[in-house]
Structure formats: structure tokens, C-alpha cells
Specification:
Blueprint (H helix, E strand, L loop, with lengths): L3 E9 L6 H9 L5 E6 L2 E9 L10 H17 L18 E5 L12 H11 L9 E5 L2 H17 L5 E9 L3 H9 L16 E9 L6 E5 L3 E4 L14 H14 L8 E4 L8 H13 L5 E3 L2 H4 L6 H10 L18 E6 L5 E11 L9 H6 L1
Parallel strand pairs: 4-5, 4-6, 10-11, 10-12
Antiparallel strand pairs: 1-7, 1-8, 2-3, 6-7, 8-13, 9-13, 12-13
Helix pairs in contact: 2-3, 6-7
């Protein structure tokens, strides 16, 4: 199957409520970390990153919907190669969404059926125009959603576009308490643990490019570590991450030396550094020396939103194309991306920047009306 291309992206994160804002903030190394009390621990405050536009008392599915709705709306706008515009919606567009990993301590907190009802309602769209396929499981669930979108496009050759995305929030007080009990959070100066965050991102994938400079996304590869990377004394050697990266490069038919960037959901902390070091050594042995991007250092852990968000950040490199002083030619740029999450599963995939001389997107409905 011909690899899919990115038509548009959308994002809602603590450092930007639009994809371009988040991309600019990460490029500027901007962060929005704050402190949040832990229930029953007066002297403990967890370091978190939250979307300030959403009230703290908005929790659970309501918060996930508030995060996902603007990001999905943004991804549905923009150029398209389909005969009709994606927004306003006049045709159904399948949407594959990753949701947070269920926590045994909070049974029933992730009501997928209610989310599937509330999200179209938040966009004022009939549910039949927005068929949702949901995948719970945190960060790697985003790769599951991407793989499912690929399978759907392969099985339905007449469908011009599909959307995949993810939404997660780890800043609910109940979730913070569970993470604290598991000793997973960065609290009161301790360097081990992650920074709980939240966010949503969506990517609209098309069969044909919608712009002269466009991003091609290749199918993800999966692997599994023998032990969890959090809550464990074991130091992982990155065997699964290396295996997934090798499979992803094979799927894209690229050698390691062709890579120019590597994007990870790890935050650069020493406690997760062994995997990155071993992957770097593996790529270097094949003459691959990609520049590393770790947006988690500024965003925190956004869980199920990572896969579409990493692709959105790579897509927002397009801002460099129009830099007033130092425009950058991105054609040929190849990026390896991976997610490791908080469990044992690992996923990796490749995305490349390309250039075409004759893009032929259909004008949007609004543009045709203006004409």
C-alpha cells in the first residue's frame, strides 16, 4: 500500500491550544509546569503540566472531551484531496482514537462509550458523520490507532481520508494520587519519576499530498520489553526499542544513516536513559546520527496523545520553510519516532518530508463559496 500523507493536524496541550502554537513552544523550549497538592500529604506537591483554559474541577471524561474537541476540529480543517471539504462535515470521516490506560485503582474512570457519545456532541456533529474507533492503553495505543487507520485505508480503497489521534490527562486529583502511591511521580525534588501532563492531538491522513511540501507517514512497528520501565528496579537495555526501530526503518525502506532526527516520548531523565543510550549506540553502529528531540522535557507525560502529537510536531517543522531570515528546505528529512509509555510495549515508526511540484488539493467549501 502507498504510504499515507499528513493533510492536517490539531493539538491541544499545556503549552499551546493549537498545533502551530505547540510546535512553536517546543521549538522555543517553553514549558508550563506547576505544582499540584497530593491528597493526604501536606508537604508533597507533584510537578504537573495542565491546560490552563480548562477548569481544575473539570475531570474524567468531561476533561478528555474538552481536550479532544478543539484538536479534532483543527485537524478537520485545512486542505484536502477529497471532492468535498472535511469541515463543515458533509461526509463521514472515520476517526481512530487512543484513550488513557485504565488504572485498576480507578475502575470505571475511562468510560469509552460515553466519550464516543460526547465528542461528536461537543463538535455539534451527528455521530454517523464521525464514526469513532477507540483504543485504550496509553501511549502505545496511539500506535495501535495509527496501525488500525492504515488497515482501514487498505481495506477501503475508496475512502480518501482518515483521522487518528489520542487524548490523555494525568492531572486529575484521583489519578495524581494513584501515581503518587505507585511512586511514579516527580515529587518534592526527587528526580526519579515523570511529570504528569495532559493533551490531545489528531492527524488527518490522506492518500495524496495536499501541499507542495508534505509529510509521509509509514506504518508503525511494535515490540515488548520483559519488564515495565516504571515502578521497577530493573534497568532496561532497550532491546525492544531497538527491535521496533529496526522494523520501522525496514518498513520505510530506509537505512539508519538516512535519519536526520529522532523523536521520543522520554524526557531525558537519567532513569530512562539506558534505553536511549543503547538505541543511539545501535544507530551509530550503522552510521546513523540523528538529532534527538525530547518534547516530554517541556510537556511532561501526555500518554495516549504522544503518537499523533509527535507527528504533529514534525509536521509543524513546516514553519521553518518560511523563516524570514533562514528558511530551511525540509525535502528529504527523515525522522524516526517512538513511544515507550509506562508499560512494557514499545512502538516506532518513520515519517519523512517530501516535495512535489504539482499538488492538487480540492478547494474547501468556504473557498468555493467565496469564489
Amino acid at each position: 500500500m502507498t504510504p499515507l500523507t499528513i493533510a492536517a493536524t490539531g493539538a491541544c496541550t499545556p503549552i499551546g491550544t493549537r498545533a502551530w502554537q505547540t510546535g512553536s513552544a517546543v521549538a522555543s523550549r517553553f514549558a508550563a509546569f506547576t505544582r499540584q497538592p497530593v491528597t493526604g500529604h501536606i508537604d508533597h506537591q507533584a510537578t504537573v503540566s495542565r491546560v490552563q483554559a480548562i477548569e481544575p474541577d473539570c475531570t474524567g471524561i468531561d476533561r478528555l472531551v474538552r481536550l479532544a474537541a478543539p484538536a479534532l476540529h483543527e485537524a478537520l480543517q485545512g486542505p484536502t484531496t477529497a471532492p468535498t471539504a472535511a469541515w463543515p462535515m458533509v461526509r463521514p470521516i472515520p476517526v481512530f482514537i487512543a484513550l488513557p490506560e485504565p488504572l485498576p485503582e480507578l475502575r470505571g474512570a475511562i468510560d469509552a462509550q460515553r466519550f464516543a457519545l460526547e465528542l461528536p456532541r461537543a463538535l455539534d456533529v451527528a455521530p454517523e458523520f464521525l464514526p469513532l474507533m477507540l483504543y485504550t492503553g496509553g501511549a502505545v495505543a496511539g500506535a495501535d490507532a495509527l496501525a488500525a487507520a492504515y488497515r482501514f485505508m487498505q481495506e477501503h480503497p475508496s475512502v480518501p481520508e482518515v483521522v487518528f489521534g489520542g487524548v490523555d490527562s494525568g492531572v486529575d486529583p484521583a489519578t495524581i494520587d494513584v501515581f503518587h502511591q505507585r511512586r511514579w511521580l516527580r515529587v518534592k525534588g526527587h528526580t526519579e519519576g515523570f511529570i504528569a501532563s495532559e493533551g490531545a492531538a489528531f492527524v488527518r491522513l490522506a492518500r495524496k499530498p495536499c501541499a507542495a511540501n508534505y509529510v509521509t507517514v509509514f506504518p508503525p512497528a511494535f515490540a515488548q520489553e520483559p519488564a515495565s520501565r516504571v515502578g521497577s528496579e530493573a534497568i532496561l537495555d532497550g532491546t525492544a526499542l531497538i527491535g521496533a526501530a529496526a522494523q520501522a526503518l525496514k518498513a520505510a525502506n530506509l537505512p539508519a544513516q538516512a535519519l536526520q532526527s529522532y523523536w521520543t516520548d522520554m524526557d531525558g531523565s537519567p532513569w530512562r536513559g539506558s534505553e536511549l543510550m543503547n538505541l543511539s549506540a545501535h544507530l551509530a553502529a550503522q552510521h546513523g546520527h540523528p538529532a534527538m528531540h525530547d518534547p516530554a522535557a517541556f510537556l511532561g507525560e501526555v500518554g495516549a496523545a504522544w503518537v499523533p502529537l509527535l507527528l504533529s510536531l514534525l509536521h509543524e517543522m513546516r514553519q521553518d520553510l518560511h523563516h524570514p531570515h533562514r528558511p530551511v528546505a525540509l525535502s528529504g528529512h527523515a525522522g524516526l519516532q517512538s513511544v515507550t509509555g509506562l508499560g512494557t510495549r514499545v512502538a516506532a515508526w518513520v515519517a519523512t518530508w517530501n516535495h512535489t511540484r504539482a499538488p492538487m488539493p480540492f478547494p474547501s467549501t468556504r473557498n468555493r463559496e467565496a469564489a
